Task: inverse folding
């Protein structure tokens, strides 16, 4: 019964993702059609399209992240209930902060958590430079 519940959560998550993405893309296409936006709409139109597409990609990413988190939550709860294993997030913390916490006997507070790792910052910079370069190439 537990496996059936977990698989139904995954199925519902995929259906929710499909409906959400379909509705969002349909809405954006209709707005573009009503406003007459397209590749031949000039520099301002292309800039507006770019901004809207960046927002759509961000919205789709957050939708996927949320739906996947909701569908995986029952699996995580079942794993914890069956194994009682709670390894934590020690690998994502800086070694110095982890050593200080261990020295003080504290393991429950997330001191020194690395929200942005170096590879992630590098990819953000490359993405931003690519976006600026693309906008400059389109505007010429």
Result:
């Amino acid at each position: 019964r537990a496996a059936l519940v977990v698989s139904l959560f995954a199925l519902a998550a995929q259906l929710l993702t499909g409906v959400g993405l379909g509705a969002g893309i349909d809405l954006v296409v209709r707005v573009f059609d009503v406003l007459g936006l397209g590749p031949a709409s000039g520099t301002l139109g292309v800039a507006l399209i770019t901004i809207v597409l960046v927002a759509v990609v961000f919205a789709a990413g957050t939708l996927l992240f949320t739906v996947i988190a909701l569908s995986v939550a029952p699996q995580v709860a079942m794993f914890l209930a069956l194994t009682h294993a709670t390894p934590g997030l020690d690998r994502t913390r800086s070694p110095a902060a982890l050593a200080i916490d261990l020295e003080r006997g504290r393991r429950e507070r997330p001191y020194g958590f690395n929200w942005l790792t170096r590879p992630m910052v590098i990819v953000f910079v490359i993405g931003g430079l690519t976006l600026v370069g693309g906008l400059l190439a389109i505007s010429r």
Summary: The chain is about 75% helix and 0% strand. The radius of gyration is 22 Å. Helices lie at 2-35, 42-83, 95-104, 118-139. The mean pLDDT is 79.
